[in-house]
Amino acid sequence: MSRNRCVDDNKPGPAQIKHYADRARDGTGLIVSEGVFIDWTGCGWQYTPVMITDDHAAAWKKVTDAVHEAGGKMFLQAWHPGRCAHDEMPIAKEHKAQVLAPSAIKANAGEYRDLPGQPGHTANVHAIEDPKTVIETYRHACILAKKAGFDGVELLAQGGYLPQQFLNSRANKRTDRYGGTVENRCRFILETIDAIAKVFDGPDAICVKICPTDYLNDSVVDFGEMKETYTYLINEMVKLRGYDPVLDFGKLVKFPGSPSKLMANNDYTVGEADRLIKEGKLDMIAIARPFIYNPVSNPLSKDSQYKLT
Ligand SMILES: Cc1cc2nc3c(=O)[nH]c(=O)nc-3n(C[C@H](O)[C@H](O)[C@H](O)COP(=O)(O)O)c2cc1C
């Protein structure tokens, strides 16, 4: 979960090493990192970590080493906010980074606490010329993540960020192979999955975080588009890559004998998670907010005062 505390060239430091290692103890199955920007063009928030250079990888290596030492596993969450970055952010100015999106269409709403007047999303949005260059950027960040000792990568494809912008017919007005039909709008995510799965020698180490009913950052579409888009996307992920689907939006379905894993999130308690996993409905449940409590850091710990029931 984003903590915005990476002050040294957006690298994790001793505070992050401790933060993640503390949370890896006491039987936590898998830690997914806070969202990590994969490029200066996609730095929407100040002090958020990035994975762009070998220096960043070296800094993250200290985090994954500490997590592994504490008995945990860790995925990097690969994040590109697309049009939800802002060209007035100091970090964007410093790196002369443009705000990129499938099409030059501003997202409605938005709020940038670090900018005077807290403006909404910028109108200074550039349409990506060739999406393959951005897929290559994801691939490069994932190569660095592998070097940094991460056990896998989660592609952040919800929240109204870049991958979801490609899915959305209001944000994506492209007339090439990446826009228009549902097949074309899903192409960016599917090609990105292919590219990063190769880095990690197959799809087993790749998660994709999607939210069909998302409303964040101007991501709402009508029901017909949502159903058509995610039915196609999920079925393609299942067919080509062995992922399990979440069908019919909200009704979680896991197929008997399926080889891959379905993880769900939002407001689950440990009790509910245990029950759903025992009933075979889900493989994993992500628990987010209780894991950022301080000073007692891990709600699974027997000493935690924030016990989940
Ligand atoms: C402070 C804060 C930071 C978050 N940062 C991220 C993030 O970096 N990446 C992400 O996918 N979700 C992020 N989320 C959403 C959580 O991962 C999660 O989906 C949400 O809190 C619901 O799960 P929960 O009920 O278990 O807390 C964040 C949420 C909060 C409250």
From TrEMBL:
The NADH:flavin oxidoreductase/NADH oxidase N-terminal domain, residue ranges: 2-226
Example GO molecular function: FMN binding
Highest taxon of the lineage: Eukaryota
InterPro entries assigned to the protein according to its UniProt record, in alphabetical order: Aldolase_TIM, OxRdtase_FMN_N, Oye-like
PANTHER family (UniProt xref): NADH OXIDOREDUCTASE-RELATED, NADPH DEHYDROGENASE 2-RELATED
Name of this protein: NADH:flavin oxidoreductase/NADH oxidase N-terminal domain-containing protein
Species for this entry: Talaromyces proteolyticus
